[in-house]
Amino acid sequence: MDILRIATAGSVDDGKSTLIGRLLYETKSITKDKIEALESASKRKGLDFLDLSLLTDGLIAEREQGITIDVANIYFSTPQRKYIIADTPGHFEYTRNMVTGASNTKVSMILIDARNGVLEQTFRHFFIASMLRIPKVIVCVNKMDLVGYSEERFNAIKSDIQAIADKVSFDGQEVTFIPMSSLYGQNLSIKSTEMPWFGGNSLLEELEQFDSQFEIVNLKPARFPVQFVVRPKTEEFHDYRGYAGKIASGTFSVGEEITVLPTGQSSKIATIEKFGTQLQTAGAKESVVITLETDVDVSRGNMLVKANNQPNQLKEITARICWMDSQALVSGRTYILQHGINDSKAKIISLNSKIDVVNQETIESGISELKLNEIGEITLKTAKPIFADKYEDNPANGAFILVDDQTNSTVGVGFVL
């Protein structure tokens, strides 16, 4: 069954947890004992209704404060497909959590409180969704019950968001607007009875109809990072030599000519095997073992690519980066750059610019550091080549992380420009 990955985003108290809880409740994804526990917890809080936000705010600190702090993955399903929702925090100080939580999703649901309209965090969330090249953004104008289900208020917010989208959306990104009340289930799984003026889909209908192959990774350049060399120590497979890994993007077929990076050696694909089954073709996200017609030198960390479509071997990289560490990023610092299964020492050569997300402006002068949760453009040099594509051309092979070699903490996530 098809799996659709979704990320939620929104400012504090926009109702993300209630919306997700309502989706779980209305799709009958909650067991009877959990509903009973929810009823008890709601009564302890002095509420006369079912507080569905408690389903997702799992940490004690979250329940006490009524906010989302950690990234939680929530699972539910319908007869049409399965869903995984990354419930990401809305606070500015947890921007890094949103970047990591949304990195593998196809849909971003950005919530807006109808009373407050577009806030600073809304700009940030939309910018990140575009930076990560998430193909579909659903703007959920929530708490419409608190503005009398006003069509005028909804249209005003829609106009404000469209102005942002016109500046930062990439070609092909689909933006949809839905007025809703997650507390009362208006426009979540079924059409609203309180907003007959809205002619679009409910949220669940919009998710059900979305084509999760909108961005087809099989059409991207073929990239196969080798994770393991298979050499069985048996008489039957004495001469067997296979290369195991997960295809990052594109497709590989038996008989195609490939090039091994970084050595540049060439060969042809002899077989593609998946759990003992012989395949003629394999595509992105499939874990396979590839054998070659000739015995060439291939080891862990190498990459198999098609001979006529090779990535750049980069030792100097210009990238957009989201900084995730309390110690600011400054020129001259050295980190470990992790790209797929490869790593290399990397030195920050320059800070080129910093992005003012709220005003959609790029600051190019007077930049001495990037602080926690700030986004900017940097140039760095690596000790050995990295086989990377531009992120906008091939997200599966265009991102990396920076690791502090002293603490082993992930301090930044980068996107090759």
Q: What is the compact description of this entry?
A:
18% of the residues lie in helices and 35% in strands. It contains seven helices and 23 strands.
* Biggest sheet layout: 8 strands, antiparallel
Share of β-strand residues: 35-45%
- For the record, the CATH architecture of the largest domain stands as 3-Layer(aba) Sandwich
Report how far apart the termini are: 35 Å
Mean pLDDT: 87
Q: From the alpha-carbon coordinates, what is the Rg to the nearest angstrom?
A: 24 Å
- Fourth-tier CATH superfamily name of the largest domain: P-loop containing nucleotide triphosphate hydrolases
How many structural domains does the protein architecture include?
A: 3
Low-confidence stretches: 58-70
- The name CATH uses for the topology of the largest domain is Rossmann fold
Helix-and-strand structural type:
alpha+beta
Spell the H/E element sequence. EHHHEEHEHEHEHEEEEEEEEEEEEEEEEE
The tally of beta strands, per DSSP, is: 23
Query: Count of helices?
Result: 7
Helix content: 10-25%
How does the overall form come out from the CA principal axes?
globular
CATH class of the largest domain: Alpha Beta
Question: Secondary-structure blueprint of this entry?
Answer:
Layout: E1 3-10, H1 16-26, H2 32-44, H3 60-65, E2 72-77, E3 82-87, H4 95-102, E4 107-113, H5 120-131, E5 136-142, H6 151-168, E6 174-179, H7 203-209, E7 223-225, E8 228-230, E9 242-246, E10 251-253, E11 257-261, E12 266-274, E13 277-279, E14 281-283, E15 287-292, E16 303-306, E17 312-323, E18 334-339, E19 342-356, E20 361-363, E21 375-388, E22 399-403, E23 410-416
Parallel strand pairs: 1-3, 1-4, 4-5, 5-6
Antiparallel strand pairs: 2-3, 7-16, 8-9, 9-15, 10-14, 11-12, 11-16, 12-13, 12-15, 17-21, 17-23, 18-19, 18-22, 19-20, 19-21, 22-23
Helix pairs in contact: 4-5
